């Protein structure tokens, strides 16, 4: 969020900061004039994109600690002031310094000059939305509605409309950003937090309990539900109603799917709802000019999160669609980065059914400042089309909870608590217009006219006012706007307002479904889907949308048709899948809607003329998995027979059979066979000819897996399928596939196949001394994970450790403890004997013993080879390596002592995102990794060797989170002291 989770700076830097001459009048001066020296210096500190200018709109004492703002129809500005931030670091009573200010421009010069104390006595308010003459205010655990009914500028209505949003964590990660969607719902971010939300106005309504997830509520009924996405402090819609959020190191994220889509099909193993539109984490570059220290780089517990020159506190994300900048800025996304005193601009473009964003230039920012007190946290459209910026203006923006207690005394969390600025950015040629407000618009005709303005603020405000009054007299004007409005944004807003009025009709929807703008057609498909049950004649338009030239329209039609029964809808879904099924989001959209019609969909999909080969193969594999997860064994058997008897391309037949085997293998109730799951599914009563066909099919699968002339993707699918075939038929080719001359991805899949086969001989082969030393770090890591996770391999693993083929230190602490606590007493006893020294609690002693290496001179170049051998399987450095653990590119600013500590004591502090989760499945598998994503039906783990494992919740036997790292302890046993010193020198060299 904007209050960046940062800041432990070495003592020398603390002293330097403490000595910085920052003009104490900022703290002591009770007020500030627009022509004051300090404000002039602040304005002079800005570096802005050429062709634009920045203007100061309000400053202290008129506004203090602004974190959000919104304009009403009178152009009055409501401002949220989080004056109490930061809240107590270690608990304690919250302050009640938070306020809502109401600012007015009395003389009409565009600058605000009058303040009313609209609301006081709040804890940590952080967002607001204008509604019906008042405002909704987010202030966890509550969302308030406040309104001034007597015109004195002070709210005399102050009502909690929703409560139960978690406020147990710091004030920087709480519900925020109430934003009105096209559908008339108010969307909020979770702040990465959970809740048990209810409305005090409806005490009989059950509470909505949820893990961290964004949400929305009806502003009339206050019914709350969770949505896709987990945003921190930032939420925005683009011109066509698509929703975007952000979190500290993820500047722009699109919410592509919603939980109600995924919930339709309980057999679908897809958990994601968010696509990263921007570059993230170590690749999310920023270009500050303030010289501000990226303080996270000095926090040992954030050692794995590279922050230097990258986003560390992305917030206030906003899709700009106004007129006050230039035409080139429309549709761009802007993001605040308060820790490094800048606002970044990114250009957004389509990427499949989602989007991607890129910097318009490098080496500079849209807006940056040399002033380290400039803390932009929030962006908003303004009445003139300007881009408004809320500057919280603090010396330290970080929260003390994220600073070790011993360092807090060196940081000034108080300076700036009497300051605050609001700016607007406009093009240099901009000329102020006469103040335009919508309060004087007395008729619905005038409001619908304003809805068709070229200016986004006027469109937004007119939309809100039309929703508030719901005057049916507006309906004919709205229908005409759908037909004739110049701007597509206006046409789609008119469409959605008609929907809110319950005044949509097939004729108007048909006009919109044929709109020349794809964004309007996309929204029209959603609305036609809502109207379909009452107007079934719209089905032909919905199915036609499946063939629309725009990918987003086709994608939206898939979401809608998934809730429509009948062969026409099924056929249209098949058409979309055959054309766009290579895109994972499209596959998820299509397959989410076919849970109750798998055989029908399969038959129709197979009949598609000239499908895209990659799409066809990907969809068939997922279909096979859906059958395996949820179809009857009889239907699964029919599918298997079809695949082995079919004379079509082996590529998609193998993909489908693989998905089927994966799904069926997770279920119980199928008679077992010593020849594997495929022969089990074929059945004991299978004809001899059918068994022969299956054997022939398996022979071809093995041949394709071992054929270097085929593409790696095809060989990987074939290799994966060998994991469900008779061991004796597959071992020879699997052994050849472990040759180091094969691609790493193929070797990794071979390890997984051998683990699935579960034959002791496979484990023995993988750990033979003569080949163990030939494994790359990634492959070695995969083999260890397989040995730990497969019950048949555990004793083989113990034997190789006793023979010193594998070092006990190469097994992660979490896995060592899991083995030591195994329910099988023999396994537990043997594990305790092998791991006693490593798990004896003496890691800090090892760290103390090794500190002497820090005083020696070490060769950083030699350390690169050590990193490649010992670390690259899981960690990336300078773009190379695995992506299991944190990227280590930016750790060069870490003290060498901290690096040594985290290498030798990896469980000293483990970031929650990298804490290992252990899952035992009903079919006997044991998996471990960190949780990537989860849905109502399933969850996805990232394993220690970089693969993803999705598990249906109904197939989980046990799940535990140890709080430990996937990284093994005892890494020093795999290298000499000199090599460890070289590794640290390499990590600190920064290249």
Provide a descriptive summary of the structure in words.
The chain is built from 34 helices and 35 strands. It is α+β, with helices and mostly antiparallel strands and 991 residues long. Strands 1, 21, 22, 23, 24 and 25 form a 6-stranded antiparallel sheet that branches. Strands 7-8-9-10-13-14 form a 6-stranded antiparallel sheet. The chain has a 5-stranded antiparallel sheet with strand order 34-33-32-31-35, with helices on one face. A hairpin with a 5-residue loop joins β11 and β12 (186-189). The protein is globular, with a radius of gyration of 30 Å.
How many beta-strand segments?
A: 35
Class computed from helices, strands and strand pairing: alpha+beta
Binned, the helix content reads 25-40%
Strand percentage: 15-25%
Low-confidence stretches: 1-32, 297-306
What does the main sheet amount to?
Answer: 6 strands, antiparallel
Head-to-tail CA distance between termini: 30 Å
Cα gyration radius (Å): 30 Å
Describe what is shown at a glance.
The protein has 991 residues and is an alpha+beta fold. The strands form eight sheets. Strands 1, 21, 22, 23, 24 and 25 form a six-stranded antiparallel beta sheet that branches. It has a six-stranded antiparallel beta sheet with strand order 7-8-9-10-13-14. Strands 34-33-32-31-35 form a five-stranded antiparallel beta sheet, covered by helices on one side.
């Amino acid at each position: 969020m904007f209050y960046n989770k940062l800041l432990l700076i070495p003592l020398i830097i603390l002293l330097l900061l403490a000595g910085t001459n920052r003009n104490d009048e900022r703290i002591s001066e009770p007020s500030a004039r627009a022509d004051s020296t300090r404000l002039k210096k602040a304005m002079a500190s800005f570096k802005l994109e050429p062709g634009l200018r920045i203007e100061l709109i309000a400053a202290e004492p008129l506004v203090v600690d602004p974190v959000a703002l919104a304009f009403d129809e009178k152009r009055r500005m409501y401002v949220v002031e989080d004056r109490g931030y930061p809240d107590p670091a270690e608990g304690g009573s919250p302050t009640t310094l938070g306020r809502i200010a109401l600012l007015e421009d009395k003389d009409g010069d565009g600058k605000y000059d009058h303040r009313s104390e609209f609301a006081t006595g709040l804890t940590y308010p952080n967002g607001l939305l204008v509604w019906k003459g008042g405002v909704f205010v987010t202030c966890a655990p509550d969302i308030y509605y406040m309104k001034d009914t007597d015109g004195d500028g002070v709210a005399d209505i102050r009502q909690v409309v929703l409560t139960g949003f978690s406020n147990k964590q710091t004030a920087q990660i709480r519900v925020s950003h109430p934003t009105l969607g096209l559908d008339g719902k108010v969307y909020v971010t979770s702040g990465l937090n959970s809740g048990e939300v209810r409305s005090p106005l409806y005490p009989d309504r059950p509470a909505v309990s949820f893990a961290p997830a964004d949400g929305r509520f009806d502003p009339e009924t206050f019914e709350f539900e969770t949505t896709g996405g987990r945003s921190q402090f930032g939420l925005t819609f683009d011109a066509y109603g698509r929703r975007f959020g952000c979190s500290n190191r993820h500047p722009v994220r699109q919410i592509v799917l919603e939980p109600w889509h995924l919930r339709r099909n309980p057999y679908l193993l897809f958990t994601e709802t968010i696509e990263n539109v921007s570059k993230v984490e170590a690749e999310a570059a920023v270009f500050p000019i303030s010289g501000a220290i990226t303080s996270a780089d000095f926090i040992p517990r954030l050692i794995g999160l590279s922050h230097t020159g990258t986003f560390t506190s992305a917030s206030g994300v906003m899709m700009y669609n106004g007129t006050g900048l230039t035409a080139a800025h429309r549709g761009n996304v802007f993001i605040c980065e308060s820790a490094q005193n800048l606002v970044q601009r990114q250009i957004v473009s389509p990427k499949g059914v989602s989007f991607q964003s890129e910097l318009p230039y490098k080496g500079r920012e849209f807006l940056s400042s040399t002033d380290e007190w400039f803390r932009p946290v929030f962006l908003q459209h303004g009445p003139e089309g300007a881009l408004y910026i809320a500057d919280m203006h603090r010396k330290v923006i970080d929260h003390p909870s994220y600073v070790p207690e011993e360092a807090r005394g060196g940081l000034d969390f108080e300076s700036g608590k009497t300051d605050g600025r609001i700016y607007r950015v406009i093009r240099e040629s901009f000329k102020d217009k006469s103040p335009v407000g919508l309060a004087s618009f007395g008729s619905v005709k005038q409001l619908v006219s304003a809805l068709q303005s070229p200016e986004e603020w006027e469109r937004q405000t007119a939309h809100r006012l039309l929703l508030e009054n719901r005057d049916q007299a507006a309906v004919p004007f709205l229908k005409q706007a759908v037909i004739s409005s110049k701007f597509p944004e206006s046409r789609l807003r008119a469409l959605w307002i008609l929907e809110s009025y319950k005044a949509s009709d097939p004729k108007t929807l048909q006009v919109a479904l044929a709109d020349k703008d794809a964004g309007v057609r996309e929204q029209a498909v959603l609305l036609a889907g809502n109207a379909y049950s009452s107007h079934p004649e719209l089905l032909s338009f919905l199915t036609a949308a499946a063939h629309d030239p725009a990918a987003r329209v086709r994608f939206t039609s898939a979401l809608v048709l998934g809730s429509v029964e009948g062969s026409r809808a099924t056929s249209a879904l098949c058409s979309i899948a055959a054309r766009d099924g290579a895109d994972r989001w499209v596959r998820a959209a299509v397959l989410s809607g076919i849970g109750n019609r798998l055989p029908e969909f399969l038959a129709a999909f197979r009949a598609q003329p000239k499908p895209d080969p990659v799409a066809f193969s990907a969809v068939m594999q997922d279909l096979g998995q859906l059958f395996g997860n949820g179809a009857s064994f009889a239907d699964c058997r029919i599918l298997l027979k079809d695949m082995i008897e079919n004379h079509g391309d082996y590529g998609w037949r193998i993909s489908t059979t693989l998905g089927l085997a994966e799904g069926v293998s997770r279920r119980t109730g199928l008679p077992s066979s010593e020849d594997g799951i495929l022969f089990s599914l074929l059945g004991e009563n299978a004809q001899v000819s059918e068994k022969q066909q299956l054997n022939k099919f398996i022979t071809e699968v093995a041949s394709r897996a071992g054929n270097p002339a085929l593409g790696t993707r095809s060989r990987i699918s074939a290799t994966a399928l060998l994991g469900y075939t008779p061991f004796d038929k597959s071992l020879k080719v699997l052994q050849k596939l472990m040759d180091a001359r094969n691609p790493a991805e193929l070797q990794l899949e071979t390890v997984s196949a051998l683990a699935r086969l579960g034959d002791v001989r496979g484990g023995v082969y993988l750990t033979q001394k003569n080949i163990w030393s030939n494994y790359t770090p990634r492959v070695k890591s995969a083999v260890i994970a397989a040995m730990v996770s497969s019950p048949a391999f555990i004793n083989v693993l113990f034997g190789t450790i006793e023979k010193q083929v594998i070092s006990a230190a190469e097994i992660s602490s979490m896995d060592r403890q899991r083995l030591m606590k195994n329910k099988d007493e023999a396994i537990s006893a043997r594990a305790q004997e092998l791991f006693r020294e490593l798990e004896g609690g003496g890691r800090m002693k090892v760290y103390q013993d090794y500190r002497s290496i820090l005083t020696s001179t070490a060769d950083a170049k030699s350390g690169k080879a050590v990193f490649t051998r010992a670390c690259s399987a899981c960690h990336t450095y300078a773009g190379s390596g695995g992506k299991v653990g944190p990227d280590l590119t930016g750790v060069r600013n870490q003290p060498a002592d901290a690096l040594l500590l985290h290498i030798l004591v990896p469980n000293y502090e483990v970031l929650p995102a990298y804490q290992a989760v252990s899952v035992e499945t009903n079919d006997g598998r044991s998996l471990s990794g960190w949780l990537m994503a989860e849905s109502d039906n399933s969850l996805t783990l990232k394993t220690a060797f970089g693969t993803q494992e999705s598990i249906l919740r109904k197939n989980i036997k046990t799940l535990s989170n140890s709080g430990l790292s996937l990284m093994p302890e005892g890494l020093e046993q795999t290298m000499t002291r000199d090599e460890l010193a070289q590794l640290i020198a390499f990590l600190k060299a920064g290249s």
